[in-house]
Amino acid sequence: MIAQASGIDIRAAGLFENLDTNRCQPSYESDMSDEGEAGMGLVAQQEAKSEDNQSETSSDLLNRSGSWHMEFILRVSDTKTVVKASDNIFRVIYDLCERSPVLKGENPWMQTFELEFFVESGPSATTTEAYPLVSNVQTDSIEIGSSGATVVRLLRMLYDLLRRTPETTALINIAPFLLSFETRLAFFQATCFGYSRNINYWQTRARSHLHETGSRSSDNIQIPLGHIQRQKVRISRRHMLESALKMLDLYGTSKSILEVEYYDEVGSGVGPTLEFYTTISRCLQERELGLWRDERTINECKSKYVYAPHGLFPAPLSPKQDPASDKQNRSIDTLPPSDRIIQLFKFTGHLIAKGLIDGRILDIPLHAAFWTAVQHHLQSSLIPSSINAWSWNQIESVDAPLAKSLHYLQAFVDAKSALYMRTDLSPAQKQAESASLRHPVDQSTVDDLALDFTLPGFPEIELRPGGAEIPVTINNVHTYIDLVVHWTMFSGIQAQVSAFCEGFDRVLSSRSLLMFTADELCCLVGHTGADDAYWTATAVQNSISVEQGLLMSSPEVGMFIEFLVSLDKTERRQFLQFATGASRLPLGGFSALHPPLRLAPRPVASPLQPDDYLPSVMTCMNLIKLPKYSSLAVFKQRWKQVMEEGQQSFHLS
After folding, report:
1. Cα 572 from Cα 651, distance rounded (Å)
2. Alpha-carbon separation of residue 586 from 7, 183, 440, 531, 576 (angstroms)
3. Which parts pass through the membrane (predicted)?
4. Which of 9, 168, 251, 395 is spaced 20 to 30 A from 447 at the CA atom?
């Protein structure tokens, strides 16, 4: 149906219910759950063909005639055209604009079109007219204009690419190194985010470009073509994780953009939503949840959160699951521990996918080895493989204390291998001497360690059947090392990885993750690594703007830049969460913030002085209001006060 091709999903039930009226206009905002309804920003209308048919209902029409069809008319300004089923919607829109004396030469993407439709009895008129791709089309023809020629050239390239979509996608997934990260990211957005978000994204860029160049064409932009519905949800801060689980379950799979508000707070929009993603990301890192490996023991650190300096990696989970027939209807707190962990990993994948498609800044520093495991899981579903390669560097980055212990045991394996390489000993002598091998550092034997075949730190997980009763000896210590690594890096996290992919698939295809490297995925969802380059005086100065009478040469602007440069990593996160709602910068640093970071003066009411005021922010606009402090010391003291005390709440100042 042409309506669907043009970006409108006309619901039959709602349409026929309103056929007895002369003119109806469905609510565009209230019925936009599908991508098809939000794509072109058109206004759908229905007119009766004649005055005599105004009182005739759809049922009368269908009862009177055994068959029926729909006709469409596209109208802009005073120009209209009939849309046939075989028409390409862009061709119709372009031709319509070219025939209109007002719109000729204008950008068709910036116009608002009116689609009228009628229900007629009888079969639709068949047409054999087609528009094959002619190989000799002159794309630089003056007759179609420069903008039209550009469109034709782009359509020709898209036509060639679309004929090879499976091959193109497979090439990107198999050999992502052939294309730059920026190109693959653009491909990911174009193929996975849906046309409404893509049209909205490109139109926003066009509007921004027109605004920067001062073009008057920007004043002609009316209704965005890629309008997307926003779903606002209000939650309680006292039950953040539980509320987030329920919220994503109810609204996380819809095509609308999710926005979060909090009870008893006036803040709304981007700021509170980014703060929600940051807070939930932090909640998922709590030690008591048991989701991740922790390089500190309980005695070493009483922190509420796990310590994973190289990134979050799942703690091993036994494949033995407690049977529970009503898992879907039970609260997360009432599930058995293993089931609760699986549900939380499914939620994590769902949260990350929703954050990516909504353009939210995520702060879940997953380990590169976790993303490698995810990609291996996805590839194994296509090409079954039982090969699980590992390296000592991987083990050290995942769990340094465990790697140190395994290195200690590896010394026994190396000593035994050296012994069996000797040619001056008989097999019986080698066997006898291997039983008494001692560690070169402390002269202990393997038997002195009293190890069994259970996973270190997780005695409930047996590395082999009956492992709790099998001692580790000089003859099987190499097998013990291999099984510990295998359970740590592969078998012990298989269920979590599968659940993560299942949650991710609720919003985006997890196969799309194959087009990125593990390190690139880390950057996309929170593990930024070294970002000191974004916090230099030059980078900050080039990324901010001033308004409302403030100048780049103003003293408070200089203090602001000097203050940012002096922050350590913890203070940077505090500043970003207070100023933007997210605790980290997007890819590209301050210059990638949207809207850009802006500074404005904060008014002072007499008899108070600027030093009596605290700075304030509008997180949705990335606008910071700076009092004119008397010194840098006062500036730093006031800012550190709001960074520590002005978190977890949004109010009017």
Report:
1. 22
2. 31, 17, 50, 11, 11
3. none
4. 395
Query: Is the per-residue pLDDT at 576 higher than 80?
Result: yes
Can 620 be counted among the known catalytic residues? yes
- State pLDDT tens for residues 395-453: 888 888 899 999 999 999 998 888 888 888 888 888 888 888 888 888 888 888 899 99
Give pLDDT, residue 4.
Answer: 32
List pLDDT tens digits, range 208-229: 666 556 555 544 555 555 567 8
Q: Residue 537 sits in a domain of what CATH number?
A: 3.30.2410.10
Q: In 421-535, at which residue ranges do the beta strands (DSSP E only) sit?
A: 454-455, 458-462
Q: How far is CA 189 from the centre of its chain?
A: 10
* 520 and 545 co-located in one domain: no
* 243 and 260 assigned to the same domain: yes
Q: Is residue 188 part of a domain?
A: no
In the chain, the amino acid numbered 126 is T
Closest CA relative to residue 34, chosen from 14, 4, 12 = 4
Query: Phi/psi zone of residue 283: left (φ > 0), alpha (ψ -120 to 50 degrees), beta?
Result: alpha
The answer to the question of residue 511 being in a domain is yes
The answer on 637 and 546 residing in a single domain is yes
The verdict on residue 236 lying in a domain is: yes
* Same domain for 552 and 507: no
Bridge partners of 222, per DSSP, are: none
Mean of the pLDDT values across residues 621-635? Answer: 89
In which domain, by residue range, is 97 found?
2-121
Query: CA–CA distance from 120 to each of 61, 283, 620 (Å)?
Result: 8, 58, 49
Q: Do 551 and 418 reside in the same domain of the chain?
A: no
Of the residues 121, 143, 159, which one is the last residue of a structural domain? 121
Cβ-based neighbour number of residue 329 at 10 Å? 6
pLDDT in tens, 446-485: 888 899 999 998 888 999 999 899 999 999 999 999 999 9
Can you tell me the mean pLDDT for 110-116?
78
SS3 state of residue 573: helix
Tell me, yes or no, whether 8 lies in a domain: yes
Q: What is the DSSP letter of 7?
A: T
**Tally of domains in the chain:** 4
Res 385: pLDDT: 55
Average pLDDT over every residue of 159-166 = 68
Q: Say yes or no: 291 and 337 in one domain.
A: yes
Q: How far apart are CA 193 and CA 187, in angstroms?
A: 10
Say if residue 377 is exposed, middle or buried (CB neighbours under 10 Å; 0-12, 13-18, 19+): middle
Name the β-bridge partners of 600: 625
Q: What end-to-end distance do the CA atoms of the chain give, in Å?
A: 52
Distance in angstroms (rounded) separating the CA atoms of residues 635 and 611 = 8
The yes-or-no verdict on residue 5 having pLDDT over 70 is no
Catalytic hit among 192, 501, 522, 620: 620
How far apart are alpha carbons 393 and 227 in whole angstroms?
48
* pLDDT recorded at residue 44: 34
pTM of the model: 0.72
Strands of 616-618's sheet in order across: 544-546, 597-601, 623-626, 616-618
> What sign for the dihedral angle of Cα 257, 262, 265, 270?
negative
469, two tokens: 């009763």
